[in-house]
Specification:
By secondary structure, the protein is mainly α. It has helices spanning about 25-70, 80-90, 100-110, 120-135, 145-155, 160-175, 180-190, 200-205, 215-225, 240-255, 260-270, 280-285. Helix 4 runs antiparallel to helix 6 (about 160-175).
């Protein structure tokens, strides 16, 4: 006697030649599967095109940057240019050493990563390029290297070509000088308003103090003036200058250069006393 076992439910109704491994889909399921496959192909195609475009732009940028490195001037004469500009403006040269408080405040204001990285690796170059070329980087924006290049080699120039040259010259400056030297040259050249060129003149004119004796509040106010001397003029716009001072102190706290308690204590004190000395009076007192 032969015992017949019932066929599995999935195989019932198949003919003798049916493939047991063949999957049967309803028309709706088959349409959805085809639609998913088409969507995946479109997404994959878009990703491939985006990667190819990014690679082409990166290659073009590298070639352009290399060409600019070749055609832009050397920066070995930067100290001589600083001396020539300071003498033409009757400013102190060489200026006094940049004190720690002003150096930290200027770093917090102009370039957040200046004191922590060399600035010449691919991430730093990309950051400077984006800030200088895409965002536009006005007189007070961008990296200190780029701003020093603007003061020395492209004063008064604007536009995309000038900003591209400033980016490349900034990289050359970083390759040629230490961070301390770059800070010193920048502090000797920067304009602080009211005819004060250089940190020594500004410290004397606004506070009747040498740079080494600047408080945190005074250093923060001067660092904020570099970006916009007229808009942040403490004589004409004291509230705006105070607000800018608070911003710089906040950046110092974020960079762990100053504790929040010391920053709060500086802000609780009355605004820094202004001396209102003229640039000529500061020159004669040297």
């Amino acid at each position: 006697m032969t015992v017949r076992h019932p066929a599995p439910a999935g195989e019932r109704g198949r003919g003798p030649g049916a493939d047991p491994h063949r999957l049967s889909l309803a028309p709706g399921e088959l349409f959805r599967a085809r639609r998913r496959r088409g969507r995946c192909r479109r997404i994959t195609g878009r990703l491939r095109r985006a990667v190819a475009l990014a690679a082409a732009l990166a290659t073009l940028g590298t070639i352009s940057f290399g060409a600019l490195l070749l055609i832009t001037p050397a920066v070995g004469n930067a100290p001589k240019l600083v001396r020539a500009q300071d003498r033409a403006r009757h400013a102190a040269w060489p200026g006094p050493p940049v004190p720690r408080r002003f150096a930290a405040s200027l770093t917090a204001t102009e370039e957040h990563g200046f004191s922590a990285e060399a600035g010449t690796g691919p991430p730093a170059i990309a950051g400077v390029s984006l800030a200088g070329l895409i965002a536009g980087g006005g007189p007070g924006g961008g990296a200190l290297y780029q701003q020093l290049a603007r003061l020395l080699y492209t004063p008064g120039d604007s536009g995309l070509a000038a900003r591209a040259e400033q980016v490349v010259l900034g990289v050359k400056l970083d390759l040629s000088y230490t961070r301390a030297q770059v800070l010193q040259m920048y502090a000797d050249l920067a304009y602080f308003g009211h005819g004060f060129y250089g940190l020594a003149a500004a410290s004397c004119g606004y506070f009747a103090e040498p740079p080494a004796r600047l408080s945190w509040a005074q250093a923060a106010m001067l660092a904020g003036l570099v970006q916009a001397p007229a808009a942040g003029d403490p004589f004409r716009h004291p509230a705006r200058a105070r607000a800018r001072e608070a911003q710089v102190l906040g950046r110092l706290v974020a960079m762990h250069a100053l504790t929040s308690a010391r920053a709060a204590a500086a802000l609780r004190r009355p605004p820094p006393r202004l001396a209102a000395r003229s640039a000529s009076a500061c020159r004669s007192s040297r």
